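Listing S7. Sequence submitted for prediction.
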Amino acid sequence: MAENGWAVGIPKFDEQHLELHGLVTQLFLAMKAGRSEAHMPSLLRQARLLLTRHFRDEERMMEEHGYPMLALHQAAHREFVALLERLQGYVTVGDRMAAFQLISGLKGTIERHLRTHDRAYVKYYETKGVLPTREEERRARGTPPSTFVV
């Protein structure tokens, strides 16, 4: 489960959110330390791959369960891709100030998305009964029960 407040209660998505949090932190630190030329292209490729996979996974689950706000969520995902492309453009032309400003606001943008869009689909899934129980999650991960019967 994501330990950074980016958890939504769906283990697969929480792991992806945690990975995204790490990448955003690395992007910020690379820019802050002036290492953008060396590290940013690789970090941006990783972020793009992660977001592509994450958005696909989220949207597939939404489609499978008839989530009524799918189109709105997809639009929000497209906005993230556009932000990432804008950041890539700033890095490519060497506009460090614009890139740093965009990265500085990126974490807040993601957190707002999680609090609104992602929490909304979680509530929908809860009403539909499609989220795994804690016992199902435990079995899927192969972890022992939290209590043992003697």
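Caption to Listing S7: primary sequence and predicted structure tokens for the chain studied. The two ends are 29 Å apart (CA to CA). The helical segments are 11-32, 36-64, 70-93, 96-128, 134-141.
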